[in-house]
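I have been asked to look over a protein record a colleague put together. What it holds is a sequence and that sequence's fold in token form. Please read both lines and tell me whether the tokens look consistent with the sequence. I do not need a full report, just your reasoning and any doubts. This is what I was given:
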Amino acid sequence: MDCSSQIRSVGELCYPWLLSVWVKTPMLRNSGILSSSACLPLADPIIFEDLSKGMVTLLVCPERENPAFMGR
């Protein structure tokens, strides 16, 4: 699957990166939100699948994000 640089492909699904999503985007309205490490779907796909059921899943990776967002 070919996802844009703002989206990560995991299996056959694409998940947006946390800091690339506009806070007022319609997909977040009245939704449960899961903020997950980007490596969780690869490290333990069963736990990731259980946690993300019925949730809008946003991935985050401190190594990928701009250090200005993380602070010191």
